[in-house]
UniProtKB/TrEMBL annotation:
Name listed for the protein in its UniProt record: Isoprenyl transferase
Cofactor remark from the record: Binds 2 magnesium ions per subunit.
First-tier enzyme category under EC: transferase
Protein family membership: Belongs to the UPP synthase family.
UniProt-recorded Gene Ontology molecular function terms: ditrans,polycis-undecaprenyl-diphosphate synthase [(2E,6E)-farnesyl-diphosphate specific] activity; magnesium ion binding; manganese ion binding
Species whose genome carries this gene: Sutcliffiella cohnii
Amino acid sequence: MLKKIQQWRGKEPSGNYSKEDILQMPVPEHIAIIMDGNGRWAQKRALPRIAGHHEGMKTVRKITICANELGVKALTMYAFSTENWKRPKMEVEYLMKLPEEFLSTFLPELVEKNVKVQLMGNRDAIPNHTLNAVDKAIEETKHNTGLTLNFALNYGSRDEIVHAVRNIVDDVKNGKIIESEINESLFSGYLYSHALPDPDLLIRTSGELRLSNFMLWQLAYTEFYFSDVLWPDFSEQELYRAIATFQKRGRRFGGI
């Protein structure tokens, strides 16, 4: 029983893995990450919280490149939730500048590495300067065929589901679809993530054990991995461990 709990929390027997080790078995097609612990990382060092977010930005770059090299097809990063607007104004303003800073710094490398950028979330409340930076990256990488880096920005799963229901209701009223056509597949097509497969692996850092309103519909059969490591300290080796744990699990999707 203890071993089962350890596996669920990501506590597989310790050890280092190489890229070659990981590539011995199929890797997850889509990895979603709840990047948690930036603030605590900064507080432990007597730094302002925004210093943790800045350091976490570097980890996004590092893990994106690593996942791309492993052949992962999609990487969804939970960057800013619909609930994060409750944070102090200065922190929110910085978080809204962070995508612009990240992309102005790393977009040339993402282009070179054949990474495609996408956005998932409610665009309405996102400042124009943030949207402009993201849209520029989306445009410049739209023909890339490597990993899709999907930023969940102003994203909340409940908001996403409500948004999908409203659009389906409108399309039924307008005669674009009929009620009998509504099924799980059609509903999924109305979600922000409709262009991507459901995640195979969810990683949450910092030791917290909750989903925080993240991809609730899409995570129905996703494998969960919880790491005690704070996001700025999450390394390529930590990603290898998460994937190695995933590779040891048997996915039955409700079957035997």
